[in-house]
Amino acid sequence: MKAAFMRKHGGAEVLEYGDMPDPVAGPGEVLIDVHAASVNGADWKVREGSYAPLETFPYILGRDFSGVICALGDGVDDLKIGDAVFGVCDVGQEAAYAEKIAMKASIVAKKPDDISHVDAAALALISLTALVSIEDTIKLKAGEKILIQGGAGGVAGFAIELAKHIGAYVITTASPANHDYLRGLGADEIIDYRSQDFTKVVSDCDAVFDTTGGDTTQRSFAVLKPGGRAAFIASGSTAPDCPRDDVQSLRPRVGRDREHLERMVELVQAGAVHVPEVTCYPLSEVVAAHKISESRHLRGKLVFKIR
Ligand SMILES: NC(=O)c1ccc[n+]([C@@H]2O[C@H](COP(=O)([O-])OP(=O)(O)OC[C@H]3O[C@@H](n4cnc5c(N)ncnc54)[C@H](OP(=O)(O)O)[C@@H]3O)[C@@H](O)[C@H]2O)c1
């Protein structure tokens, strides 16, 4: 099969497009012909070696995908060959930048016909992350006020629509070129973080969801009211130190399961949440796609259209 892989850690130029052996479905797994796979912020961090260094090369990146089942491993009885499915690789597993992937059957979900493979791949990890962060971790309620940092990114865009659907008041941060886009997602207030200090213009929030990291993380605690909750997904694998004793610092635990993917489908089909702006690339242009992702100013999602 064709795949995008790397033989060592490094810049985007370490990525190669070429032939790799086909994977095989083990017990409890399905083999999927991948139609689309998305680029996530984690991909270039893994590529650079910012997480634990990889021990085995060549290594195929890619955490979410959509495709069609082409073989079943032993013991799979709730899915069949020909089913269109999408999902997020299990924790510790990657390899979606490829024409085929073997995946635990219990963590993929059926893709409905009214969501394309490109859109399902675009939505998979961002929706899982936003749902676990906003609903399960922050437990946002109607009438609450939330600041969502980095509104134009994939996870934050889904989170804005989800928070509005819950009935919250949503403030977000973005550069001016993205303000119309964020108004379209339903944000109540948008702050240009380049010209305004959000800590001077936002206060008394019930919650913060930070998808940007950097110095934004520690500064975000200042806008919370006593009892407030802040969740962080771009500042490491544990909750950041909290400078106040009257608010909570939380690190969402984004596991993989079919239920959250099905919840996303429900929300999209109900019109509560929409597919983000998607830019498609062929897998052979993996280097260019990574350069855009690591620039940290992509709006929406990058997706490899593989079939
Ligand atoms: N399971 C997990 O824990 C998990 C899952 C998914 C993602 N993540 C992490 O979450 C983060 C977000 O990922 P993503 O894919 O949704 O988005 P992303 O592609 O990393 O974010 C890009 C967006 O961030 C905005 N941005 C950059 N710096 C900003 C700042 N200082 N203030 C406000 N906005 C800023 C940019 O908008 P402007 O052009 O307007 O600046 C751009 O649209 C990444 O670090 C990723 O690794 C974690």
Tell me what the structure shows:
The strands form 3 sheets. Strands 3, 5, 6, 7, 8, 15 and 16 form a 7-stranded mixed β-sheet that branches. The protein has a 6-stranded parallel β-sheet with strand order 11-10-9-12-13-14. A 3-stranded antiparallel β-sheet has the order 2-1-4, with no helix packed on it. The relative contact order is 0.17. It folds into 2 domains: 2-124 and 257-305, Medium-chain alcohol dehydrogenases, catalytic domain (Quinone Oxidoreductase, Chain A, domain 1, Alpha-Beta Complex), CATH 3.90.180.10; 126-250, Rossmann fold. The longest helix has 21 residues, at 117-137. With 307 residues, the protein is α/β, with parallel strands linked by helices. It has 8 helices and 16 strands. 26% of the residues lie in helices and 28% in strands. The chain binds NADP nicotinamide-adenine-dinucleotide phosphate. Residues 40-42, 125-126, 129, 149-150, 152-156, 173-175, 178, 193, 211-213, 216, 233-234, 254, 296-299 line the site of NADP nicotinamide-adenine-dinucleotide phosphate (NAP).
